Amino acid sequence: MAGGEWHGGGGPVVRRRGRDFHVRRIPAAAAQKTYTCPACSLQITPGTAHVVVWPADSLFGEAHAAGERRHWHTHCWRIG
Q1: Please, which domain of life does this record's source organism belong to (predicted)?
Q2: Strands 70-72 and 50-55
């Protein structure tokens, strides 16, 4: 993920599997909920740094793309 942290907007764009994705880093201190990683199906527990990923190229616009946000373990996103 190039560009480091970002504020507002879409964040850095990463190309994976032929698509562009926005990627936002969530530091451990800001991780307050439990999510299920779509890659490994294991929980991302509060206090675990991770990434939020959503399509940058949705045909239905930004609002629809934001609805496709998924929380991933950082490692799972890197190897995925």
Answers
A1: Bacteria
A2: antiparallel
Three-state secondary structure of the chain = CCCCCCCCCCCCEEEECCEEEEEEEECHHHCCCCEECCCCCCEECCCCCEEEEEECCCCCCHHHHHCCCEEECHHHHHHC
Global pTM reads 0.79
Choose the weakest-confidence range: 15-19, 31-35, 50-54. Answer: 15-19
Residues 6+ apart with CB under 8 A from 47: 28, 29, 31
